[in-house]
Amino acid sequence: MFDRTHIRLRLVALAACVLVGIVPGGRALAAYPERVIKIIVPFAPGGGTDVIARTLAQELGEDLGQTVIIENKAGAGTIIGTQAVATSDGDGYTLLMGTFANAVNPSLYDKLPYDPHKDFAAVALVARSFNIVVVNAKSPYHSIAEVIAAAKAEPGKLSYGTYGTGTSAHLAGELFKSLAKVDLTMVPYRGAAPAITDLISGQIQVMFTTVASAAPLVQSGQLRALAVTSAERSPAFPDVPTVAEAGVPGYAAESWYGLFAPAKTSPEIIDRLNKSAARAVQSESFKRLGVNEGLVMVASPSAELDRYFAGEEARWRKVIKDAGIKPE
């Protein structure tokens, strides 16, 4: 009698576990998400990464049936915000909007307070973007070939503006110098806006900058677009060649946005978030964002983000080392 009762109780308990989605380790995945999810953006509010993260948060929230909020943790070249995610619980409720900076920081800094690979689990490569090479509309340069010719004729005379050491704009310029075998002088600024102001006034000669910062000025006739830094032409600028097409074979430089979770996050939660991100980037909100920001939507399986991240880290490590770039 005792044995039958004991067996019956165990079967009831097992059935209850199945119903609530208990898996080895005691996590109730069926209920995820039960509370607010937070995406940490390691930049100040208002920038491109922040805009993309907020759009993603809105779409994820609708798909998951739970509120998704943004927390901006800027500072130390994205290290502060990134570390906050690395040390958080791997429960799916704290995520990181990773960027180009996450791939270059291991080469810029001798030591980081986290391991960029061991402390994170890739969720989804959300989108890729490119920079655009622009000059003053009154500039004598109408092509990349003319910029290269001028730079070789007078090494160091031409200057290009960047909005920070180690940013995509800075490294796009350094890659250009390396592959085109030219000497351009880098002039750092605190942001894209002051650099573009000096480009228009003739204080600097060229910029590798974001589509969002340059497109309105190209359309208004204040800047001239010479090339895009992506491997393929952009639908947003179909008549503008790539840098590779324009005379620098092998050139490709892009920014990207990827969603990461702490390393201990379960594969089931990662998969659920990945599928939700894939649906998010198909929304009308992301389509509009793609046009405005020059984005190519991706949201591929999480393994693709791992592969892409490793490739980007290796590519920029060589550029940083060869150029002797150090953090400010």
Could you explain the architecture of this structure?
This protein is an alpha/beta fold. The chain folds into two domains: 181 residues, 3-Layer(aba) Sandwich (D-Maltodextrin-Binding Protein, domain 2); 99 residues, D-Maltodextrin-Binding Protein, domain 2 (3-Layer(aba) Sandwich). Strands 3, 4, 5, 6, 7, 8, 9, 10, 11 and 12 form a ten-stranded mixed sheet that branches. α2 links the parallel β3 and β4. α2 crosses α9 and α6 packs across α11. About 5% of the residues have low confidence.
Number of helices: 11
* Distance between the first and last residues' Cα: 76 Å
Helix amount: 40-55%
How much of the sequence is in beta strands?
A: 15-25%
Shape: globular
Rounded mean pLDDT is: 88
Alpha-beta content class? alpha/beta
Q: Within the CATH hierarchy, at the fold level, what is the topology of the largest domain?
A: D-Maltodextrin-Binding Protein, domain 2
**SSE order in H/E notation?**
HEEEHEHEHEHEHEHEHEEHHEH
Summarize the structure.
This protein is of the alpha/beta class and 328 residues long. It has 11 helices and 12 strands. A hairpin with a 3-residue loop joins β1 (22-23) and β2 (27-28).
Question: What is the topological layout?
Answer:
Layout: H1 2-19, E1 22-23, E2 27-28, E3 37-41, H2 48-64, E4 68-72, H3 79-86, E5 94-99, H4 100-108, E6 120-136, H5 144-153, E7 159-162, H6 168-180, E8 185-188, H7 192-201, E9 206-210, H8 211-219, E10 223-228, E11 254-262, H9 267-280, H10 284-293, E12 295-297, H11 302-323
Parallel strand pairs: 3-4, 3-5, 7-8, 7-9
Antiparallel strand pairs: 1-2, 5-11, 6-9, 6-10, 6-11, 6-12
Helix pairs in contact: 2-9, 2-10, 4-11, 6-11
